[in-house]
Amino acid sequence: MGYGFAKVWVRIRNIFLSKKSHDVFVFLFFFVVSAVFWLLQTLNETFETEISVPLEMKNVPENVHITTGLPQQIHVTIRDRGTTLFRFIRYTVHNAIEVDFSKYDTGLTNARVQVPVADVQQMIQKQLGVTSHINAMRPDTLEYYYNRGVGRRLPVKVCGSVSASPQNYIQTISLSEDSVTVYAPNAVLDTMQYAYTQELSLSGLNENAVHKVTFRKMKGVAYEPATVQMTAYVGYYAEKTLEVPVIGLNFPADKVLRTFPSKAKVTFRVESGRYQRITADNFVLAITYEELLQNPSDKYRLHLKSLPDGVTNARITPQEVDYLIEMSEVEGEIQ
């Protein structure tokens, strides 16, 4: 085994000491030196880069509601030498820029405050190198709205659509909060009747669904709580069959209607919550005297005059019945 290892070692050594390997190592050495030199030259040039800086507010009084806040972060484009930018991005921790509420407090009940861009840039510049220059900032306008407890309780109105699968139906929709407190300027509150949610689009539901909904965004308007829980209760359709008598309407007192058969089966789809409540009394299979006078056949095609709530896809068996118009027995005895 030792002899085999020695042979392998000799072959590896011969490869590294060969003329071809020597030329490869020389080439790699000068390639690495050139790459390092090029990198140093490149980093010494001026570049632009974009960084994200967190943004926070401090010293907000307890009785103040920030109805529309500042963005969570801003994007700043800075210009400097490549080496400086590399050190800044690699080693510097970007501390959050803190906007002092008390500095811009106007003392009003409701106000819109626009933070001067120069103030924000000055706070960012403290984190940058002396040679770094701020070229741009997004967003270029920083503003927030606040409210000192001026609010009103308004009912929640769900916007959008909530629908079930073809085999199901929406029984009811409930909210964890049927009303919320809305904070806004008086001029805005006076025009608001409801706290409208964001547009919902839920379809194809086949079981109860719980969804957290937020409210329609408006500048200077805040909601408490900021979200509510909506529950859509889903029911299912069931099929049911009932025997419904065929009756005559508007017949003269001396005439009576006989149909064969006297009853027909009505098969229908009904909401599960109404299954037990729907009976034969909820359906009307009626034939009017006027219809029979205009009917050219001795058969009559049955149809329902109306459907109860929650019932769909009603089918009648048989669809046609034979009929006779007979003299009333009471009238026959009188004659």
Question: Mind explaining what this structure looks like?
Answer:
It is built from 8 helices and 22 strands. The protein is α+β, with helices and mostly antiparallel strands. Strands 10, 14, 16, 18, 19 and 21 form a 6-stranded mixed β-sheet that branches. The protein has a 4-stranded mixed β-sheet with strand order 4-1-3-6. The chain has 4 domains: 42 residues, no CATH class; 102 residues, RNA Polymerase Alpha Subunit, Chain A, domain 2; 86 residues, YbbR-like domain (RNA Polymerase Alpha Subunit, Chain A, domain 2), CATH 2.170.120.40; 98 residues, RNA Polymerase Alpha Subunit, Chain A, domain 2. The longest helix has 25 residues.
Structure described in brief:
The protein has helices spanning 2-17, 19-43, 82-91, 101-104, 117-125, 186-189, 289-293, 329-334; strands at 46-58, 65-68, 73-81, 97-100, 110-115, 133-138, 142-147, 151-157, 160-164, 168-175, 179-183, 195-196, 200-205, 209-214, 222-224, 227-249, 255-260, 263-271, 285-288, 299-301, 311-317, 320-327. It is of the alpha+beta class.
What's the layout of helices and strands?
Blueprint: H1 2-17, H2 19-43, E1 46-58, E2 65-68, E3 73-81, H3 82-91, E4 97-100, H4 101-104, E5 110-115, H5 117-125, E6 133-138, E7 142-147, E8 151-157, E9 160-164, E10 168-175, E11 179-183, H6 186-189, E12 195-196, E13 200-205, E14 209-214, E15 222-224, E16 227-249, E17 255-260, E18 263-271, E19 285-288, H7 289-293, E20 299-301, E21 311-317, E22 320-327, H8 329-334
Parallel strand pairs: 1-4, 8-12, 9-13, 16-19
Antiparallel strand pairs: 1-3, 2-7, 3-6, 5-7, 8-11, 10-16, 11-15, 14-16, 16-18, 17-22, 18-21, 20-22
